[in-house]
Design goal:
The complex is a heterodimer. By secondary structure, chain A is of the alpha/beta class. Chain A has eleven helices and 14 strands. Chain A has two domains: about 220 residues, Rossmann fold; about 70 residues, Alpha-Beta Plaits (2-Layer Sandwich). In chain A, the strands form three sheets. A six-stranded mixed sheet of chain A has the order 6-7-8-3-9-10, with helices on both faces. In chain A, strands 2-1-4-5 form a four-stranded antiparallel sheet, covered by helices on one side. The chains are: A alpha/beta, B mainly alpha.
C-alpha cells in the first residue's frame, strides 16, 4: 500500500533580499498524521507555513497540499486547508462572534448553519461569555483560541498551526493541545510548527527539525529523544565524593561527566532513554556517594540542536544590514 | 459532545470564490466595524465642517468675494475634498488589515481575489453617502443653496460617490504597498495638501500660470467644478483646462482612468501576496 501524503514539498526555497529563509526544504506528511516542525526563531518555520498555505510563492522547488500544487492550484489548496497562527489573525474590531460568522459566510454556510457553527465553536473554546466583545479586548490566549476556531469552521483536510502556543499561559496551551489531539484522533492531518521540544513531543507523530531553512533531522519523537537523551545532574555533600560519583555516572551513561568543584555538582549526558532517575540515585547510594540533590531532565531545544546539528549557536544568522 | 463540536461533520463541497457572494460579506464586515465604533465616522465628518466654519467665516471675511458667496463656493469644494479622502481611508484600511494579519487570514480562504478590496471600497462609498449629509446641512445653515434642479443635484451626489469609489481603489493599492498602519496614517495625513492644490477651496483664476495648470489638472478641481455646476452654485470657469471647463465629463474621465489603472493593480497585488 502506498502512503498518501497530505503535504509534500521538494526543495522549497525562499529568500527575502539577501536573507535565505528556506534553502531547499523537503517535507512529507502522511495523510492523517501530525507533523511537528521544530526549530528556533528564524529557522524558516513560518516561511514554510506561508508557502504551504499559498500566502507567498516559492523562489524554487514545489509543494503539494491535499494533492494540489500550491502555486498552480492555489484556490484548490485554500479550499482544503485551515490556518491558525503567527501570520494570520482575526479582525480585532469585530467581536468573536462576528468574526466567526463572517468566516462562516465566506465558507458558504447557508442560513442559520453559520450562526450555529460559530456558537458551537465559541462554546467549545470557552469564549461564549466574551463572544460579543471586540476581539481586540481579548487576552493572547483568547485570541489564539478564536483564531483556531476560525480555522475549524469547516473540516479542513490539512490544518496548519504556526506556533499556536508561543507565549501562552499553561491553561490556554492545554486547551489548544487538547483540540489538536482531538482533531488528530479524528483523522485531520496537522502540520504544527513550534519552538518547544515538549510541544512537538506531546502532539506530533513525526518531527522535522529545521535549521537555517533546511530539514536537519527527522524522525518520531521517541527516535529524537533517544538521539538527544537527557541530562543528569547530581549534587553531592562534599567535594571529595565527586570522583566516586563520576565513576558511577560514567559507568551508567558511557559518557564523560563534567565536574563543577565549586558547587559540588556533576553533570552528564544521558542518551539511554531507559535510564531513570531512581536507578541513578540507587547506584550512587550503593557506591556510598552522599547525594543531596539529583535531577534528570529533558534537554532544552538548544541542547537538542547542539547534539543533532553539532552546532551550539541555534539562533538564526543575523540579517545583513539593509 | 465536544468531539462532534470540534470537527465539523457535514463536510461541505469545496468552496469556490465568487465575487457575488464574497463581496457583500466583506462590505458587511466594514459596516459592522463602523457600527461597533461609530465615533470614527463622526470624527471624520468633523474636519470638513470645522474647515467650512473656519474658511467660510475667518478667511472668507478677508477675501474679495462677499462671505456669503464664498461659502456657496466653498461647500461644493469641501464635498469634493471629502470625496477625494477615499485615497487616505482606502490606504489606511488596506495597511491596517495587512499589519494586523487579518488580510492574510482572508488570503488563505477560498475567496474571490477581488472581494476584499471591493468590500472596503464599496463600504467607503456607503459611509460617504451618509457622511456628506451633516456637512451639507451645516452648509445650508451657512447660506449655501442647491440652486439647480433635483436631477442635477442627484448627479452631483453620484459624481462625488463615484470619485470616492475611484480614489478608494487607488488608496487601497497604496496601502497594500505600505502594509504598515502607522506609516499609512502619516502619509494619509499628508494628503490634506491635495485639495489645497486644486480649486476646492480657492478659485484657480488668480493663481500664477504654472500653478493654475497644476491645479486645474488636479482631478479634485474637475470634481469641485462639476459639483458647483450641478448644484447651480457656479458655472465652470472660462478658459480653464479641459477637465475643469467640462467638469462632468472631466470627472467621469478621471474616475474611469483611476479605476482602469488601480482596480487591476490592486487585485493583482492582493492575489500575488504582500511579501
Amino acid at each position: 500500500m502506498t502512503t498518501t501524503y497530505a503535504v509534500l514539498s521538494e526543495g522549497l526555497e525562499k529568500h527575502y533580499g539577501d536573507v535565505h529563509a528556506l534553502r531547499g526544504l523537503d517535507l512529507a506528511v502522511a495523510e492523517g498524521a501530525v507533523c511537528g516542525v521544530l526549530g528556533p526563531n528564524g529557522a524558516g518555520k513560518s516561511t514554510a507555513v506561508r508557502l504551504l498555505t499559498t500566502l507567498t510563492s516559492p523562489d524554487a522547488g514545489s509543494a503539494r497540499v491535499a494533492g494540489h500544487d500550491v502555486v498552480r492550484e492555489a484556490a484548490a489548496v485554500r479550499a482544503a486547508i485551515g490556518v491558525t497562527g503567527q501570520s494570520t489573525s482575526i479582525d480585532g474590531e469585530l467581536s468573536g462572534r462576528q468574526n466567526l460568522r463572517l468566516f462562516a459566510r465566506l465558507l458558504r454556510f447557508r442560513g442559520p448553519a453559520g450562526r450555529t457553527r460559530a456558537d458551537e465553536l465559541l462554546e467549545r473554546f470557552g469564549l461564549t461569555e466574551a463572544a460579543d466583545r471586540p476581539a481586540r479586548t481579548y487576552s493572547g490566549g483568547m485570541r489564539r483560541r478564536l483564531d483556531l476556531a476560525a480555522g475549524l469552521l469547516t473540516r479542513p483536510q490539512v490544518l496548519f498551526l504556526d506556533e499556536p502556543t508561543t507565549g501562552l499561559d499553561p491553561h490556554s496551551r492545554n486547551q489548544i493541545w487538547e483540540a489538536v489531539r482531538e482533531l488528530a484522533g479524528r483523522g485531520t492531518t496537522v502540520l504544527l510548527t513550534t519552538q518547544y521540544l515538549e510541544e512537538a513531543d506531546q502532539l506530533a507523530d513525526d518531527i522535522v527539525l529545521i535549521d537555517r531553512g533546511r530539514a536537519a533531522h527527522r524522525g518520531t519523537p521517541a527516535e529524537l529523544k533517544s538521539l538527544i537523551g537527557g541530562y543528569a545532574e547530581v549534587v553531592v555533600a562534599h567535594e571529595s565524593a565527586l570522583r566516586a560519583a563520576a565513576a558511577v555516572l560514567d559507568r551508567l551513561t558511557g559518557a564523560e561527566p563534567t565536574l563543577d568543584h565549586e558547587h559540588r555538582t556533576i553533570g552528564v549526558v544521558a542518551s539511554d532513554p531507559t535510564l531513570t532517575l531512581p536507578r541513578i540515585v540507587r547506584e550512587l547510594d550503593a557506591a556510598g556517594v552522599p547525594v543531596i540533590d539529583a535531577s534528570l531532565r529533558p534537554p532544552t531545544l538548544d541542547e537538542a540542536f547542539l547534539r543533532l546539528t553539532g552546532r551550539g549557536d541555534v539562533r538564526a544568522p543575523k540579517e545583513p544590514a539593509a | 459532545m465536544s468531539a462532534t463540536t470540534l470537527v465539523h461533520e457535514q463536510n461541505p463541497a469545496p468552496v469556490t470564490g465568487s465575487l457575488a457572494a464574497d463581496g457583500p460579506a466583506m462590505v458587511g464586515r466594514h459596516l459592522q466595524k463602523i457600527k461597533a465604533a461609530p465615533g470614527v465616522l463622526v470624527l471624520t465628518q468633523t474636519m470638513p465642517i470645522t474647515m467650512l466654519l473656519f474658511f467660510g467665516y475667518v478667511f472668507g471675511s478677508a477675501l474679495a468675494v462677499p462671505g456669503q458667496e464664498y461659502r456657496s463656493f466653498l461647500v461644493p469644494g469641501l464635498l469634493a475634498a471629502t470625496a477625494a479622502n477615499g485615497l487616505m481611508t482606502g490606504m489606511f484600511q488596506a495597511a491596517q488589515d495587512c499589519d494586523r494579519g487579518v488580510m492574510d487570514r482572508f488570503r488563505t480562504l477560498p475567496m474571490s481575489r477581488a472581494a476584499v478590496p471591493l468590500g472596503s471600497t464599496v463600504a467607503e462609498v456607503l459611509t460617504t453617502a451618509v457622511g456628506m449629509i451633516p456637512l451639507m446641512l451645516v452648509g445650508l445653515a451657512a447660506g449655501w443653496r442647491i440652486e439647480g434642479g433635483p436631477g442635477a443635484a442627484l448627479g452631483a451626489y453620484g459624481l462625488l460617490l463615484l470619485f470616492r469609489f475611484a480614489t478608494s481603489w487607488a488608496g487601497y493599492w497604496l496601502g497594500l504597498l505600505i502594509r504598515n498602519e502607522e506609516a499609512a496614517g502619516q502619509l494619509g495625513s499628508a494628503t490634506f495638501i491635495l485639495p489645497l492644490l486644486s480649486s476646492a477651496y480657492i478659485p484657480t483664476d488668480n493663481m500664477p500660470g504654472w500653478l493654475r495648470t497644476v491645479a486645474e489638472w488636479n482631478p479634485i478641481s474637475a470634481l469641485a467644478s462639476a459639483t458647483r455646476d450641478l448644484f447651480g452654485n457656479a458655472a465652470p470657469a472660462a478658459g480653464a483646462a479641459w477637465p475643469v471647463a467640462h467638469p462632468v465629463a472631466g470627472t467621469l474621465a478621471w474616475s474611469a482612468v483611476l479605476l482602469a489603472v488601480f482596480v487591476p493593480l490592486t487585485v493583482r497585488r492582493y492575489a500575488r501576496g504582500t511579501d
